UniProtKB/TrEMBL annotation:
<dbReference type="InterPro" id="IPR000601">
    <property type="entry name" value="PKD_dom"/>
</dbReference>
<dbReference type="InterPro" id="IPR013783">
    <property type="entry name" value="Ig-like_fold"/>
</dbReference>
<dbReference type="InterPro" id="IPR035986">
    <property type="entry name" value="PKD_dom_sf"/>
</dbReference>
<feature type="domain" description="PKD">
    <location>
        <begin position="760"/>
        <end position="819"/>
    </location>
</feature>
<protein>
    <recommendedName>
        <fullName>PKD domain-containing protein</fullName>
    </recommendedName>
</protein>
<dbReference type="Pfam" id="PF13585">
    <property type="entry name" value="CHU_C"/>
</dbReference>
<dbReference type="InterPro" id="IPR038081">
    <property type="entry name" value="CalX-like_sf"/>
</dbReference>
<dbReference type="InterPro" id="IPR036179">
    <property type="entry name" value="Ig-like_dom_sf"/>
</dbReference>
<dbReference type="InterPro" id="IPR026341">
    <property type="entry name" value="T9SS_type_B"/>
</dbReference>
<feature type="signal peptide">
    <location>
        <begin position="1"/>
        <end position="28"/>
    </location>
</feature>
<dbReference type="InterPro" id="IPR049804">
    <property type="entry name" value="Choice_anch_L"/>
</dbReference>
<keyword id="KW-0732">Signal</keyword>
Length: 917
């Protein structure tokens, strides 16, 4: 669909205008044109513009210093479009000497320190004075609304000037829209105090100080920091380009002081940039050339499209008199052939500005000759006499372009954009240099990347629906516009599906897919060519089914999966076949899994088909071996499953066991043996009634200490685990053993009386046997016998008693009969201790005494003990004393003390003996 709107004929603009625009780059810097220039050079060769002459130039009050280079006066050039001044003079505090100035001091409440002051006289050719400047400072942002701000001012004095400063001067460096508020850090800033600053300090300068933030910028800071100029790389903020202006009287002499200074310190510098050639006094009129309708270039008009103007303007202060302005035309365009001038006066070479008239304009009407000639220009030079009597000139220029061709933009083809709302436009313009613009109508917003003036812009839609995209091509030189449009349908289609599902074996599943975001859909399934959104399937195994939807406009949804899981078939696990013993019961089980997961239904039947139970566990007690069958089903279509469990009823053996001898005296040792068939017995256990047990022995030995009768039980375990037992009461009988014992007297017997009588003290004895070692008799069977032992010697003789009970149980007791000698002593009456071997010692012989308790003493005739001994085996050798001196021959008295070795009776014997030499 195409729409056409033609405001006038389109013109193709000539290439040099585009080249001019495209050459504007954002890159650039401020460079040092002439360092440390003289103040006189700064004024005359850089600052001054038209209509002004300067004299009496001084620097900090010195005419001589104005002729010498100064470090605080710098000429600069700028190539960056960010900074609005192309070139000019920088007056700065950096590198400036200390100064004293009453006008700067009047602006601040603190002391000024170092600074730059340039003063000069000038005579204006017009009735006004103006110049452009930018103030910058290191103190911005850090000292906003503080008491310590650098100051500057432009103080002008002369005819018609009245102000509070020296020579009735006034400061024309004031905030725009005010007459007396000086531009400074506290009057023009970001609108917020810095840390430590007080808003009251700024309000004291200008109550409306926050509104002045429109005149403040930090956009130059990067340019400053990258600049090669010294002194201001640390400037943190600036004013925008401002204009200082005032009314003057043509031809009169005025004085101006351009001053800037640090305050309180010399470390935080400031500067003021003065635009080159801007210090000028306006002439009596100004000539301007413009295109009445063009928005591309005011000095270009197009055949059949535009009407241009040359306007002659003056200020209201100059309109009290009539003025005549004369002009001449020239250029490559011919008047009357390529264009006509209207509103001319005086044969078409002058205009008259009557009393009270500020502006008169000539219309330049191009003639559409249908000839392609290329750009042609019209130049006009106007001149008049100003109030000072001088002739002033002004020039203007307008270009005439050929009539343009028809515009035929193409927005492309209607299209569909699917999910995500992202697409690319494919527009085409008639002339590549013409401006184009995309617009739209629709339910939401459209974002163009990089912008809406790009033919092949990427577009992003935020709301689904139908949009009309309009491509408008414009020829700026003629304001001609032609529009074309396309329809873009944006669909955000989505797909919903039923949840994953699980079905039973032999079951069916229903899958449903539902698209949204369009009027209708078809559904593409992975398992079928059927395009319906509902599918009924009967799978045998788990499977995944994919589906995507396609709208009527062709938009596809994401592909989604539906997983259909088929429950496994029923699996049945039953108890293993088991063996039980007669009379026992057993629990048999069935465990189902799979299918729908339960609960399951169990039915048990026996060999005869009789139902014996339900559930996964039943308790059975068959009398004979039986096979049980269980069938299980679930709650859905799963195939039933069955299984069997056999219960075997095992047999029991006949238990037979015996004992070798069932009646034994204490301590009894019985031997029992198993006679049960080995093949029927797996384990054997013996239990004796006294608590004794034995395991897995076919033959056992049972030792019993205590008399009495004892029962015996045998327990057998068959290979099938069946347990049976048999018992024999009083199978074992243990008789008591007699206790043999006896005493005898005398104890001991002596050689003089060797006859011994024995007293039988046995218990439970029935018969007795005595054995006497060397006795007479040597054997006896009587209860209390007597026996005589040898009387010719001493000795010890063993006597044995064997006692037998009525059940033949025996016990033996033995004892020792000791025959000892009677107590006797024999003591010699003399001996000869003369050194020969004949009878050299005296030693008594004693029998029947305790050898360990004997004392033998020898005394001389004076009663002195000469020898003593306690050993019957040691005799006296006739010596006495420690020197072993032989006693003199003579009679000596001996004395013996002893104890009976049996009854401890005491004996004392004494006598005399002769020592013979």
């Amino acid at each position: 669909m195409k729409n056409y709107t033609c405001l006038s004929t389109v013109v193709k603009l000539f290439s040099f205008l585009f080249a001019f625009l495209l050459s504007n780059s954002l890159m650039g810097q401020i460079t040092l044109t002439n360092p440390n220039i003289t103040p006189a050079y700064a004024v005359n060769d850089v600052l001054l513009g038209a209509g002004v002459t300067a004299t009496n130039i001084t620097y900090n009050g010195s005419p001589l210093d104005a002729q010498n280079p100064q470090a605080s006066v710098i000429e600069f050039a700028n190539t960056s479009p960010v900074f609005p001044l192309d070139s000019g003079v920088l007056l700065q505090t950096s590198g400036a000497p200390n100064i004293i100035d009453p006008d700067l001091s009047a602006i601040t409440t603190n002391n000024v320190t170092n600074g730059t002051i340039i003063e000069f006289d000038f005579i204006p050719d017009g009735d006004s004075l103006s110049f452009n400047y930018i103030f910058s400072s290191v103190e911005y942002q850090g000292y906003t609304c503080s008491n310590y701000n650098d100051v500057f001012g432009f103080f002008i004095s002369g005819p018609g000037i009245s102000g509070p400063y020296t020579n009735n001067a006034k400061n024309i460096a004031v905030v725009p829209g005010t007459t007396n508020i000086p531009v400074g850090i506290n009057s023009v800033n970001s609108g917020s105090p810095s840390f430590g600053g007080s808003a009251a300090n700024c309000a004291a300068v200008d109550p409306n100080w926050t509104s002045n933030s429109v005149y403040f910028t930090q956009s130059y800071n990067t340019l400053f920091s990258n600049s090669s100029l010294p002194g201001f790389s640390s400037f943190n903020g600036s004013t925008v380009e401002l204009t200082a202006n005032t009314s003057v009287i043509c031809g009169q002499t005025y004085h101006i002081k351009l001053a800037i200074s640090n305050v309180m310190d010399t470390g935080f510098d400031s500067g003021v940039f003065l635009k080159a050639g801007s210090f000028a006094s306006e002439p009596a009129f100004q000539l301007s050339a413009s295109n009445l309708t063009s928005t591309f270039s005011d000095s270009v008009i197009v055949e059949s499209c535009h009407t241009g103007t040359f306007c002659f303007d003056r200020t209201a202060a100059q309109n009290s008199n009539q003025a005549v302005v004369y002009f001449q035309t020239s250029g490559t365009a011919t008047r009357g052939v390529d264009y006509n001038l209207t509103n001319t006066q005086n044969s078409g070479d002058s205009v008259v500005l009557g009393i009270g008239v500020n502006s008169v304009c000539l219309n330049v009407v191009p003639i559409d000759d249908g000839i392609t000639e290329g750009p042609e220009n019209v130049e006009i030079v106007a001149y008049s006499v100003n109030p000072c009597g001088d002739t002033t000139f002004s020039t203007g220029e307008i270009w005439i372009a050929d009539s343009p061709v028809d515009l035929v933009p193409n927005a492309g083809n209607d299209t569909v954009i699917c999910n995500g709302g992202q697409g690319t436009l494919n527009g085409a313009s008639t002339i590549s240099s013409n401006e184009i613009l995309w617009t739209y109508s629709g339910p939401g917003n459209v974002t163009f990347t990089p912008d809406d003036q790009t033919l092949n812009a990427d577009v992003a839609f935020d709301t689904p629906g139908q949009y009309i995209m309009y491509l408008t091509e414009s020829n700026d030189s003629c304001n001609t516009q032609v529009m074309d449009s396309i329809i873009v349908d944006y669909e955000e289609v989505t797909l919903g599906v039923t949840n994953d599902t699980t079905i039973c074996e032999n079951g069916t599943a229903t899958m449903v897919a539902t698209g949204s975001g369009s009027s209708s859909f078809v559904y593409n399934w992975s398992h079928s060519s059927d395009l319906n959104g509902t599918q009924v399937i009967t799978p045998t195994n788990q499977d995944t089914y994919s589906v995507f939807a396609e709208s009527v406009l062709g938009c596809l949804t994401d592909t989604l999966d539906i997983e259909v899981d088929v429950l496994p078939e029923i699996t049945l696990v039953t108890s293993d076949s088991s063996t039980i013993c007669p009379g026992e019961n057993i629990k048999i089980t069935a465990s189902a899994s799979g299918g729908d997961g339960g609960p399951y239904n169990y039915v048990w039947t026996d060999d005869n088909g009789v139902t014996v139970g339900n559930g996964d566990l039943i308790d059975v007690s068959p009398s004979v071996t039986t096979t049980y069958t269980v069938e299980v089903t679930d709650g859905c279509e799963s195939t039933p499953k069955s299984s069997t469990v056999e219960v075997v009823v095992a047999g029991l053996p006949d238990i037979v066991f015996d004992v070798v001898d069932g009646e034994i005296c204490t301590p009894a040792e019985f031997v029992l043996f198993n006679q049960t068939a080995d093949s029927l017995v797996n384990e054997t256990y013996w239990n004796i009634s006294n608590g004794m047990t034995f395991m897995d022995n076919d033959t056992i030995e049972v030792n019993i200490e205590n008399q009495g009768t004892y029962d015996v039980q045998m327990v057998v375990v068959t290979p099938e685990g069946c347990v049976d037992s048999a018992s024999v009461n009083e199978m074992l009988r243990v008789y008591p053993k007699p206790s043999a014992d006896f005493t005898f007297f005398p104890m001991p017997a002596t050689i003089l009386n060797p006859n011994v009588t024995f007293q039988n003290e046995s218990v439970n004895g029935y018969s007795y046997e005595w054995n006497f070692e060397e006795g007479d008799p040597i054997f006896a069977t009587s209860v209390n016998p007597t026996s005589t032992f040898p009387n010719d010697k001493t000795g010890e003789y063993e006597v044995e008693l064997i006692t037998t009970s009525e059940h033949g149980c025996k016990d033996t007791s033995t004892n020792i009969v000791e025959v000892i000698p009677d107590v006797t002593i024999f003591a010699p009456n003399s001996f000869t201790p003369n050194g020969d071997e004949l009878n050299p010692t005296w030693k008594p012989m004693i029998q029947g005494v305790d050898n360990m308790n004997v004392t033998i003493e020898i005394y001389n005739r004076w009663g002195e003990k000469v020898w003593e001994s306690h050993d019957l085996n040691v005799g006296w050798d006739g010596t006495y004393g420690s020197g072993n001196i032989i006693v003199p021959a003579g009679v000596y008295v001996w004395k013996v003390k002893a104890s009976n070795m049996i009854n401890d009776d005491k004996y004392v014997w004494d006598g005399v003996l002769n020592v013979i030499k």
